[in-house]
Design brief:
This protein is an all-alpha fold. The chain is built from 4 helices and no strands. The longest helix is centred in the N-terminal third of the chain and has 32 residues, at 3-34. The radius of gyration is 22 Å and the shape is elongated. This is Transglycosylase associated protein.
Length: 126
Amino acid sequence: MADSEFMTIVEQSVHELLVWVGFGTLVGLTAKAIMPGRDPGGALATMMMGIAGSVIGCGLVMFFVDGTRVSPISTIGFCAATAGAFLLLFFYRLLAGSFFVEAETSENWLHRLRRRRRRYAMLRDT
């Protein structure tokens, strides 16, 4: 293989990597904007969630719709990728326990309520 062919392959690979990183970041940010509440992770987690959501969303569309080839960098691909990232974020929150709170004893609940009231009173007085 000649040097010029190798450099062309490296350039194309770096270009693909940068496209996936940029696209994954946009998809991850869009999914986090749609999902209400606090979101886990920082910039790297958002990018990885967007890339994984792209693979999952576009893969699901191609699996359920026969003969369809979805490019992630298209309107349908962006919608499918955002839906995939949204599903990842939803299942993460579901499994992490952010949607459901276990039953608490009345003493523990009362203690937390009193502590919260004191904190709000302190904030109000300042």
